[in-house]
Design brief:
By secondary structure, the chain is of the alpha/beta class. It is 48% helix and 13% strand. The strands form 4 sheets. The protein has a 6-stranded parallel beta sheet with strand order 5-4-3-6-7-8, with helices on both faces. Strands 11-10-9-12-13-14 form a 6-stranded parallel beta sheet, with helices on both faces. It has a 4-stranded antiparallel beta sheet with strand order 15-18-16-17, with helices on both faces. Helix 2 (24-43) crosses helix 3, helix 11 (258-271) crosses helix 12 and helix 12 packs parallel to helix 19. The longest helix has 29 residues, at 83-111. It is elongated, with a radius of gyration of 36 Å. Keywords: Ion channel, Ion transport, Membrane, Transmembrane, Transmembrane helix, Transport.
């Protein structure tokens, strides 16, 4: 589909037109003063060296007026002025001083004008985006989530372009140590014109991430991307169910609702704890050690805060038939649950809700201080409570770290992890969906197998496609009709009797014959895409196996190929039969 090219900056963003419009009156005043000065000088009589009457020409008058208006004092030409000329020049000097003072004052006012600064910043931003030759993501919203994603993309080697409405947040970009410059603009990202300036239709733009804290703005961004750049993948944040349904109606590929995502996770933890542990191990921060969490117990629960987050938590518990008592300042809409009026920060409401007999509590209000107060009070009343804490602001992580909750729900981290999983490893999402659909016994078996093999440190998760660009050595052998199995590819090119510290989790084929945890003797085909998990360093070794002919030949046959032209010639001579005969 043909995409419209970048359009020049609109007239109201043009620095030249903005300056000329503001300087119109001062310039007219200066021109008028110079014109009056020149006219007066040509009419005022003077005398030459011989005492005869003399009048200045227009050229001499303009020359004198030009340097007098700017410097005041340069000499009288071509002859000394008469008293009439000096009187006229005196009047013109004061006029020019007033005119220049007014003009300079207007110039200084323009330089400090926010509209001009915004126009200059917009033009600089548009030029920076137009000159981007590397793939980049358009990030709308630079809050806590946007900052996490920008840092992650920077580590992955991708460029970012940022649009943020609040100037205070945009100003933080220069303070962060990014490897590459991040073009940014203070503007409303829901405006299609702004999105065009930010490179929505740029040939190097490879994705749009809508992360503003306004669902309507994210919806507008998703619609604009769908219409102006339908080829681009869009990831959009949505916290209201109505917004989620609206985005899904016109085909937004990735809609991320952090509360709904955690609600599904909580339901999974109650239904299949091993699957929950497995998902936490796969989606954690690579390199960190994951401890086996205490599983959410079944029994009576207490929930504080029946807003958007609280309603989804109640739905998750209802789906697993877990009884819950709601504490909220306003009674809930439905009467199917027991509820207590209050905020939960005091012991009275918690005791009335039965906190001493409860097995768990969800502190899910929109206030971090209230959530911590609820958790501390509840833990004092019941030491064995399973505590789920909602953290609204990432800046409060030190406070939340001091309180040892069983689960801390950070919406910004949930969104960031989901976006990065989609961006860096697209195969991970369908594999996680497959895990959610399996039973507890299968998930427990897989968790035990993976942790025995790789330990409890969060593994590197990546995907490899078997094609000529990513796996040239393997692809050529497969195209020649050779049969190569997963077991062979996972051997070490240092010692083929040893295996790499990685596992194939998922195999996707063009004919929809996808395999979850494929068997070791599964033969790979050209075009297959593999999802792997392994220890640090395994990714590079596996990539070397499938890309390098010498390494691949060794793990398949156990023999080393000659490493250069000379050695290849010598090897060929050794293979040739000898023509010499003994006498």
């Amino acid at each position: 589909m043909h995409e419209p090219p970048f359009e020049p900056l609109a007239r109201h963003h043009s620095v030249f037109f903005l300056i000329m419009r503001r300087l119109r009156l001062p310039l007219i005043l200066l021109i008028s003063i110079v014109a009056i000065t020149v006219l007066g000088l040509t009419l005022a009589p003077g005398i030459d060296v011989d005492g005869r009457p003399h009048y200045l020409s227009f050229f001499h008058a303009l020359y004198f007026a030009s340097y007098t208006a700017t410097t005041i004092g340069f000499g009288e030409i071509p002859y000394a002025f008469s008293d009439q000329q000096r009187l006229w020049v005196l009047v013109c000097i004061y006029l020019s001083v007033v005119g220049w003072a007014y003009t300079l004052g207007t110039v200084f006012a323009i330089l400090s004008d926010r509209n001009l600064q915004q126009a200059i910043a917009t033009q600089r931003f548009v030029r920076a985006v137009q000159h981007l030759g590397e793939p980049f993501y358009l990030i709308c919203g630079y809050g806590e989530t946007g900052r996490l994603i920008c840092h992650a993309l920077d580590r992955l080697g991708y460029r970012s372009v940022v649009i943020e409405r609040e100037e205070s947040k945009v100003g933080e970009i220069d303070l962060h140590s990014y490897a590459a410059d991040v073009p940014f603009l203070t503007a409303d990202a829901s405006n299609p014109e702004t999105l065009r300036y930010a490179g929505l239709t740029h040939e190097s733009c490879i994705g749009v991430i809508a992360l503003t804290n306004d669902d309507s703005a994210n919806l507008a961004i998703a619609i604009a991307a769908r219409l102006l750049a339908p080829r681009l993948p869009v990831m959009a944040r949505a916290e209201a169910l109505e917004t989620t349904a609206n985005m899904a109606s016109f085909g937004t590929p990735h809609i991320i609702n952090p509360f709904e995502k955690f609600g599904d996770t909580l339901a999974l933890a109650l239904h299949a704890p091993a699957a929950w542990q497995l998902l936490g191990w796969l989606t954690g921060l690579p390199g960190t050690t994951v401890e086996r969490h205490r599983e959410p117990p079944r029994g009576a629960w207490v929930l504080c805060g029946h807003g958007r987050f609280g309603k989804l938590m109640v739905d998750a518990m209802d789906s697993e038939a877990v009884p819950v008592t709601i504490i909220d300042r306003q009674p809930p809409d439905d009467a199917t649950h027991r509820w207590v009026q209050g905020d939960g920060t005091g012991a009275v409401a918690l005791l009335e809700a039965g906190i001493k007999d409860a097995v768990g509590i969800v502190a899910g209000t929109s206030s971090d201080v209230d959530n911590l107060s609820i958790a501390v009070t509840a833990r004092e009343l019941n030491k064995n409570l399973f505590v789920i804490l909602r953290q609204n602001h990432y800046a409060n992580r030190a406070l939340y770290g001091a309180f040892e909750s069983d689960i801390t729900v950070v919406p910004s981290e949930i969104i960031a992890h989901e976006c990065l999983a989609i961006l860096s490893t697209p195969l991970l999402a369908p594999f996680l969906d497959e895990i959610r659909s399996r039973d507890e016994e299968w998930c427990a078996w897989l968790l035990d197998r993976m942790t025995r093999r790789l330990g409890w440190t969060v593994p590197d998760v990546w995907s490899e496609r078997i094609n000529l660009s990513r796996a040239p050595a393997l692809y050529r052998r497969l195209m020649r009709g050779e049969t190569i199995t997963i077991d062979q590819l996972l051997r070490s090119h240092g010692n083929r009797n040893e295996f790499l510290a990685c596992e194939v989790l998922y195999l996707v084929r063009d004919d929809d014959d996808d395999l979850v945890i494929p068997a070791a003797n599964t033969a790979v085909r050209p075009g297959d895409e593999l999802l792997l998990a392994g220890r640090p360093g395994a990714r590079g070794r596996f990539g070397f196996n499938i890309a390098n002919e010498h390494s691949l030949n060794y793990i398949l046959t156990g023999t080393d190929l000659p490493g250069g032209w000379i050695w290849e010639k010598l090897a060929q001579r050794k293979k040739q039969p000898s023509n010499r005969h003994l006498p």
